[in-house]
Amino acid sequence: MNLDLNALALFVIVAEERSFRAAADRIGVTRSAVSQTISKLEATLGIALVTRTTRSVTLTEAGEDLYRRSASPVADMRAAAENAGNMAGPARGQLRLAVSSIAESFLSGPLLADFAQAHPQVKLHVTVTDEEFDIVAEGYDAGVRLGEVIAQDMIAVPVSADQRQLPFASPDYLRANGAPRHPRELAERRCIGWRPGLSVAPYRWEFEENGKAFSVAVDDAITSTDMALMIRLAMAGAGITFGLEESFRLPVARGELVPLLEDFCPRFPGFYLYYPNRRNMAPKLRALIDHLKR
């Protein structure tokens, strides 16, 4: 089989974008050129890879399998080519990052602003998401997550101090209801919790006592996928909420929220920038890693 590797690389872009037009815009060709290349690849393989509609492209079962097997090798080839082309010059190109919404220190602004100023030829695209997925398969250069959820085959660079999760409540709530003395009392309190979706159980609040970890299934009066909303509700006296200490730093400093049960809340490894172990790293990613280390 005489397989066109350029066609395979284009197929991966189409799979990432789920659109012929978006793929064409991304590489600077016409939509018809993309369509013709994919059709030729399908003819070479003897099987349909995509299902076309007027608005979108979906992958067939064969297409999903090819994408899953090809995404990482194609990403490696892109990185190698970019590394070879840019080694003598400054970092350039689009740097795609998938960042947890609660990575406060990374998303606060100054770190990324300083990097963008130092590397004007790098275009940053930051997707803020709490979904867990394969960053390589989805076409990202790197991600930022808590260290405990990063796959062991990734390389990780710390981007924050150690973290801890705490309950928080407003002074008005505490005056009216008093502060809990033990985490298990939270099961009887009005709480504001995090829940990724209605089909998923609310997050259990995690604590430690005498070196032993345990969790509490609080009876959430309110749940949300948005930590900022949870903080505002707690400030308004709607109940006790729970999250990473650094997310609550400003309202605590202003006296709008009070941390609770600190003796039951140990520290754990914080956030890391993580990326696949590649022999040829793109200069744009190397520039970000060097920036973080400095």
Describe this structure in words.
With 294 residues, the protein is α/β, with parallel strands linked by helices. The chain has 3 domains: 5-85, Winged helix-like DNA-binding domain superfamily/Winged helix DNA-binding domain (Arc Repressor Mutant, subunit A, Orthogonal Bundle), CATH 1.10.10; 90-161 and 270-293, Periplasmic binding protein-like II (D-Maltodextrin-Binding Protein, domain 2, 3-Layer(aba) Sandwich), CATH 3.40.190; 165-264, Periplasmic binding protein-like II (D-Maltodextrin-Binding Protein, domain 2). Helices cover 36% and strands 23% of the residues. The protein has helices at 5-17, 20-27, 31-45, 61-86, 104-107, 110-118, 171-177, 227-235, 249-253, 283-293, and strands at 50-52, 57-59, 93-99, 122-128, 142-146, 154-158, 165-169, 191-194, 205-209, 212-216, 220-224, 240-244, 258-259, 271-276. The strands form 4 sheets. The protein has a 5-stranded mixed beta sheet with strand order 4-3-5-14-6, with helices on one face. The mean pLDDT is 87.
